[in-house]
Amino acid sequence: MSFMQALRTRWERADSLVCVGLDPEPSRFPTRFNDAPDAVFQFCRDIVDATAGYVCAFKPQIAHFAALGAESALLRLIEHIHQSHPGIPVILDSKRGDIGSTAAHYAGEAFDRYAADAVTVNPYLGRDSVQPFLDRADRGVVILCRTSNPGAGDLQDLPVAGSDGGRRPLYQHVAEKIARDWNGNGNCALVVGATWPEQLREVRAIVGGLPLLIPGVGAQGGDVAAVVANAKSADGSGMIVSSSRAVLYASAGDDYTDAAATAARALRDQINRYR
Ligand SMILES: O=C(O)c1cc(=O)[nH]c(=O)n1[C@@H]1O[C@H](COP(=O)(O)O)[C@@H](O)[C@H]1O
């Protein structure tokens, strides 16, 4: 099943638009992991098993594993998700972007080495740099559009000439370009931060039903009601609302799995109330 089919199926069957981000920070793990040699894998696996019933996707963030030399934990974690929770797509958050010949290796890294169903990609180098990802029609290509961080506007808001001759912010141009030209295989999604409700509304108006990955609720303070009101598609879906730290580190005690499950379920319910 393709990433887009799996995502839509999961939206419906689990009745959830929540994505749990897997960003391991060992200093925030419960103390029981202090001497555990395989702590990164075990902690993330526990969170996955506790929250699987409430999510439409999982999103491991590659730097959090690579900086710890824990690539093997990432591999085994994705394998675990596929085996124990079939049907839940995995979005590898690696935000790659390079010349085409190198990008082909990044696509191989995400889709063949790690067996991710989708990957986050930076569009700044242009279409040929994203093409190796776009060519994998069964996999999702989740492209940065208007990121959640405070400096997002430094470059993403710069005015550029639009197709109608008028000027508009670069992120809107990115949204239109991808929805109209790059999405020939129907496998594109866009990243827009939950911290920017106005920009979410603008992007939704441009891209129709294209899925939006929306990080920035929870630890970054994005407002769930505003996100849903501005970013939902015509059928009340279209969103992958991602939260990492607020779920992973909901408790530093021995109740960490219960606390994570409660946080994921509460986010699912809050989103569903507004859509
Ligand atoms: O691509 C992403 O996932 C992403 C895009 C963005 O604009 N902002 C953003 O925070 N993220 C990622 O989403 C996660 C946010 O985590 P929390 O703020 O802990 O929920 C991190 O792994 C970020 O790298």
UniProtKB/TrEMBL annotation:
Its EC number is 4.1.1.23. The keyword Zinc does not apply. The active site is at K95 (proton donor). It comes from the Bacteria. The keyword DNA damage does not apply. Residues 17-260 form the Orotidine 5'-phosphate decarboxylase domain. It catalyses: orotidine 5'-phosphate + H(+) = UMP + CO2. SUPFAM superfamilies: Ribulose-phoshate binding barrel. Keywords: Decarboxylase, Lyase, Pyrimidine biosynthesis. Belongs to the OMP decarboxylase family. Type 2 subfamily. This is Orotidine 5'-phosphate decarboxylase. The gene is pyrF.
